[in-house]
User: Fold CBS domain-containing protein from candidate division WOR-3 bacterium 4484_100.
Amino acid sequence: MEKVGDIVNKKVITVQRFTSLRSILKTFKKFHTLPLIPVIDENGILIGIISLKNLIDIFKPAEPEILKTIPFLDERPIEISEVELSPEMGHLIVAEDIMVTKFLAVNEDVAVEEAFRLMRLHNRDQLPVINKEKKFVGFIGLFDVILKIFKEKGII
Assistant:
């Protein structure tokens, strides 16, 4: 049984908790679509994930907590061209401000089939991979799993 660690993509750009928004955007602008951005601490431990949704949330105006409890208010469209953003935000907003700290990750010792099951169950195209010490190893994606199966079947 092949493990996630055998097919994990280790060529991943990471950022640290105090990386500025400007640096994050410059680093990732060369990608066709923005991937999940792993945020690691000084020991390489995965502490957060930044997604495209987290970047879009920057455009949302700050609202009092009481308004966040009214469901239909959350569905208002964001008019990004009307949002006032100052150039200083590029330096003032850091990864830690926008990352999510509750995320699904898979251990490198897990079977590939289990990682695939988790991706399908949680509607994810990719998952961060960590080792026993919770250090970030890389990503495994649906394409990695499909490619593995095609190789096993002799198609490629």
